[in-house]
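New to this. Please check both lines:
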Amino acid sequence: MALVKISNVTKKYKDLLALDNVNTEVRQGRIVGLVGKNGAGKSTLMKCIIGFTKFQGRIFINGEQIKYMEHKVFEDTAFIPDINSLDGRFKVKAFIDFFKGVHPKFNEERFNSLFASSGLPLGKKISKLSKGMKTKLYLILILALDVSFLILDEPTLGLDIVYRNEFYNTILSSFYNENRTILISTHQVEEIEHILHDLIIIDQGKIITNDTIDNLLTYYKLITIDAKDRDKLNNIPHKIVTEGLSAIEVVVPRKANITGFKEAIPNLAHIFLYTLENAHETA
């Protein structure tokens, strides 16, 4: 069942076509990755979904059409943008009190449980927190909301591997269940590969893939061939993902007629690179 339905959505910024007649959906109860290169249209699409920017076309969440700057969308949706949007003039406790006051679905019991092990200093100004601590504060506040749809836009950008791992572990343990949906935008697919059910790939403002992870892993294979045999790739759609002096690793369609080489299952980063390399040529 589609939680979000996106129909013929186009967005232009003066001469820049950020979204080009996008038609896609986000299914309910799934963790969905929205991936693409920098400037592919990920953040713009998310802003359209929550009504933060005007666009042509239609978007529905739970059957309700989204309108520009309509607060109703946040009755059951939470959004975590880059944490630089936090007001550094607040002390942590003051910001928590402010947040509680403006969100009627704030669950104080859940917040207290999450905050107890956070290590966040109540009396410190937000501007004095590290980026990791700011992200932790924002995440705990958002997870304290009784909503069923969570949208994350490059949420771990600039964080080290420890904070990134903690961030996604907290989301899985404290938010996600089969009745809740998470949409995560990133250009680092390898970072979220282990938690995804579905993958949407966007490039040049167009959706070029929207499929389940299980399906995607059956469409392709990773082969290792001698560098001298690269001419055997002629006329076969492919993407070289690792190139050494004597051997290369290549993603090809599973049905490709190329045999006699070592085969493996590609990861999502390999599939992402292959899709970008070949999508527009075959469109």
Helices lie at 42-49, 92-102, 108-116, 131-143, 161-174, 189-192, 213-219, 268-282. Residues 79 and 151 are 5 Å apart (CA to CA). The chain has two domains: 2-204, 216-282. Residues 268-282 form the longest helix (15 residues).
